[in-house]
Amino acid sequence: MWFSRNAVVVAVTLTSLVLCSPAVAAKTKRERYELTDEEIGDRNRFWKHAVTEQSLIHDGVNHYHNIQGCIQNSMTEQELKDIATATSANRRARLMLEDEANGYVHLVVVENAIHPVHAKAVQSLASCVRTFLPHLYESRAMYKEMDLDEDPGLGGNCPTHLAPLVGVFLPEVIAEMDKTLNVAYEAAGWQQIVESDAAEEDWPRSGKLYPPSQVGIRASEHLTYSDFPALSDHTDGDATCYTMNFAFSGPEDYEGGEFFIASTDLKKKRKYQHVKPNRYEAMVFLGGRYLHGVEEIKGGHREMFSTEFWPYPDAPFGSNLWSNFPGNMEQHIRACNLEVLEGNTGPCKAEYSKATPFHDSIDEVVSKYGAKNKETTEQIPKSEGLAAADIPWKGVLSLRDFGPYPKPLGGINRAKADRERPNRVRPSELNPAKVILQDREGNLYDMDDFFYSAEEEPDFLIPKNLKVGQMEPIRWREDFSPVDGSDGETFVIGFPKELHEEFTKYIANNGMMRVAHRLLYKEKEFEPYEQRIYTLDDGEKWTAMIQGTWDNDMIWLDPGDESAFESLLGVLRRGGFDKVLEQVGKTFDLDGLMIQGVGAIFISENHKTDNMHMDIPGSRGSFYNIIVPVHIPEGEVSMFKLADSEDDATGALKLDPNVGVVLGGESRHGTGECNYRKKEEFRLSFAIYVADINDANVDLIASDSTSLWPTEGDTFWFQAQKGRLWTRDGKNSLQNDQGRLPLYIEDDSEECATMDKKKCMTDLKGLRLLCPKTCELYLEDDIYYAKYFPNSERRNVSKPASCQEDANHPTCENSATA
Questions:
Q1: Are residues 805 and 686 in the same domain?
Q2: CA angle 167, 169, 172 (to 5 degrees)
Q3: pLDDT digit string (tens) for 590-632?
Q4: pLDDT digits (tens, 9 = 90+) for 480-493
Q5: Residue 257 domain-assigned?
Q6: Which residues pair with 468 in a beta bridge?
Q7: Domain match, 683 and 766 both
Q8: Fewest C-beta atoms under 10 Å: which of 139, 456, 500, 692?
Q9: Rounded distance, CA 773 to CA 153, Å?
């Protein structure tokens, strides 16, 4: 297995830490202001203990084995072996862009920069991080990072922060990244800049360029752009020597979205050059010195893996891009070096500062983000009488160029004024006696008549009587704003009464409640990632699992194969769920809807809501989770938590069997506190996952790994379901369902023909997945249509000539396309 203790020695490029010589030890902390290479130490010094101790602590919980196991489960055995041996052949510089005014290359495009299996490993790591460490994912608006009150159109991106986790879990990827950086460094001739900067004795370390052997990772991010159409001009800060952006999507995967970088031409005019890299290429550029950004993305999915290198060790776990500036790192290095002098031979105990420069000084903001002007340099900020035209422009915006920036004017000290004049007459508070609200369509709502009272629903405004299919946004009671913003996707919806009736009959007839009670109170507790299969009274197979290490006993039951899945669609069809699908499709302006899965979620005890999460980050506008409460213990309540996407404010609402909660793929939610164990009771909700599948998002939606079926990454099944149950033109609906497209399913191992079929129930991650036909994970087409849709027009769809979803899939040539 590639998670070995020896992994910590891979990609160590800084000089080893040496603090024992008398010359160094004799210096005081004040005298040693400028750090030497020896004092800086190895690049992995602040995280190597995570590997040797197999420890990754966040909020008192060790997530090392969670992340490790998650990566292993998300990749095949062959892929795991390939990670250790694969390397990209024929790395070379395909394109180089030059700064005309300074006469040197500032960007290199390296082709074959990363092997596909390493790209998948990074994607798997990012997905696992979002599952177990959701705080490391953010929707990052640039104007907020610049500490502005409003967005002037600067855009942003959606990063999953991976520093230093790539080094901890994927050291082979780090080694390959180093090779790509060296290719770019040699091709661009950046050694000349390194030598020139070294001669500038008055420049701090953070302002100089260093060779690849002397840089560590400041930030490493898996990037999508689902919340933002663009990313405006910015630099990555003086401290960043090199920025390396790997393209995980190809130019055909998105419209627009060109990367741009600015320099100056021979006439001292701002010049913008554009690049749209191929999949698995890397753009390596001087990100700390040159303005760059992303043009408007007009459609599709843009996915990048971006890393910033700086002349310090890799940033420690728990830090972030905004706290990783030179002052914090140098302070941390000195504190840790003092610990070494005092005899500490283990991990540094000093806490890495979480402070950022942006709230302390506007100079740092100017240094990082510069100005936005794609024509000339005339709008670069001025400082103390120095005209922009007089600035020695060399493609870099930094403190060295601008000098001190004027401080903002101070405000009124209200607290002091109130102390000096305690008898001042103040405005009296006004409390509204009656509140009438009006929505954008002009509809009026009397709060007392339309919404539950504050005693019934303290946190949110929830309508009292929803009509069937009526959708209303869930709003904060305190200010009437939608819980996840003005363009949010968190709603309540009215259910047909038949839906609850059908689910109640279904779980009574198949014995699901008895099985759930046995799992919660009688059987041995689940281990993380353990999965079991149960056959219910109706003969259908269901898989059982727990979700990670959340502090509760929640158990998920999911259909174990296509037969169980189709039986659930029958429940939804009889329960009038078509009215729900139609309203969801129209409300979110979708093209079509399929149902990805229907899972039963049981829980008896939860003392702390620490499981706030998103279902599929990056799936905004295409994936929705509809919660159907089915069983709540008599005399008890079932609480559900929702969080603000901006400031983590969390509130609770009471689940109602007749009211559904509609969550977007990026709606933050979690399980409320409960304890029904004295009664040996539990609550049950069904989660119905619906998706608007298209070529751009099918890989993302199919990558969900929270159930054994449909099997993770089986895009051919998703394509066969595209728009099956609702389309905006009215041709498809749940009531007029014609079934999926033909799959032409085949096994992927010769062993399947002679295997003991009992292994389909025991070897869940081996032969069960290799033998989808023999194990009947997907029904053969003649059986499928004869059983469910004997009159379907879809059964006559011809076999495709080639597979468009995944040319490497084992059943590719026999898989249906939509």
A1: no
A2: 65
A3: 999 999 999 999 999 988 766 788 888 889 899 999 999 999 9
A4: 889 988 888 999 99
A5: yes
A6: 494
A7: no
A8: 456
A9: 52
Q: Is the peptide bond before 164 cis (omega within 30 degrees of 0)?
A: yes
228 & 328 share domain: yes
The answer to the question of residue 665 being in a domain is: yes
Query: Which alpha helices (DSSP H) does 633-737 contain, by range?
Result: 698-702, 715-721
> At 22, is the secondary structure helix, strand, or coil?
helix
H-type alpha helices, 301-405:
326-341, 362-369, 399-402
What's the pLDDT tens digit per position in 437-474?
Answer: 887 778 888 888 888 998 999 999 999 989 999 999 99
Q: Is the Cβ–Cβ distance between 599 and 544 less than 8 Å?
A: no
CA dist 572 and 380 (Å) reads 60
Q: Which two tokens stand for residue 213?
A: 């052997």
DSSP secondary structure string, 517-581? HHHHHTSPPPPTT-EEEEE-TTS-EEEEE--TT-SB--EEEEE-SHHHHHHHHHHHHHTTTHHHH
Mean pLDDT of 794-805: 52
Pair 601, 554: CB distance under 8 Å = yes
Task: Answer whether residue 405 shows pLDDT above 50.
Answer: no
- In tens, the pLDDT along 209-255 reads 999 999 999 999 999 887 887 888 888 887 899 999 999 999 999 99
Q: How far apart are CA 110 and CA 92, in angstroms?
A: 5
Q: Which two tokens stand for residue 446?
A: 């009397």
Q: Is residue 480 part of a domain?
A: no
pTM here is 0.51
In this structure, what CATH number is given to the domain that contains residue 67? Answer: 2.60.120.620
Whether 750 and 667 map to the same domain: the answer is no
- Residue 693 contacts residue 594 (beta carbons within 8 Å): yes
Cα 426 off chain centre by? 48
686 and 804 in a single domain? The answer is no
Helix (H, G, I), strand (E, B) or coil at 320: coil
Between CA 35 and CA 308, with CA 324 as vertex, the angle to 5 degrees is 95
Which tokens go with 583?
């309203």
Looking at residue 484, its amino acid is D
pLDDT at 409 over 60: no
Counting runs of H as helices and runs of E as strands, what totals does the chain give?
A: 24, 35
Least confident of 80-94, 385-399, 411-425, 645-659: 385-399
Measured CA to CA, the distance from residue 168 to residue 594 in angstroms comes to 38
- Is residue 464 within 8 Å of residue 451, measured between CB atoms? yes
Pick from 675, 692, 709: which residue ends a domain?
Answer: 692
Q: Determine the Cα–Cα distance for residues 656 and 474; give it in Å rounded to an integer.
A: 14
Is the preceding peptide bond at 772 cis, omega within 30 degrees of 0?
Answer: no
pLDDT of residue 646: 62
Q: How far apart are CA 793 and CA 730, in angstroms?
A: 16
Q: Are 206 and 98 found together in one domain? A: yes
The full 3-state SS of 445-502, as one line of letters, equals: EEHHHHECCCCCCCCEECECCCCECCEEECEECCCCCECCCCCCCCEEEECCHHHHHH
Please answer whether residues 92 and 84 qualify as being in contact, where contact means their C-beta atoms are separated by less than 8 angstroms.
no
Same domain, yes or no: 687 and 760: no
What distance in Å separates the CA atoms of residue 815 and residue 818, rounded to the nearest whole number? Answer: 10
Q: How far apart are CA 270 and CA 396, in angstroms?
A: 12
Q: Taking every pair of C-alpha atoms in the chain, what is the biggest distance, in angstroms?
A: 92
Residue appearing with tokens 């003092």: 338
66 backbone dihedrals φ, ψ, rounded to 5°: -65, -50
Residues in the chain: 818
- The total of structural domains in the chain comes to 3
Amino acid at 357: P
| Listed residues 308, 343, 369: the one ending a domain | 369
Looking at the structure, tell me whether residues 71 and 217 fall in a common domain. yes
Question: Above 80 in pLDDT, residue 707?
Answer: no
Euclidean distance between the first and the last CA atom of the chain, given in angstroms as a whole number: 38
Range of the domain at 558: 485-692
| Number of Cβ within a 10 Å radius of residue 60 | 5
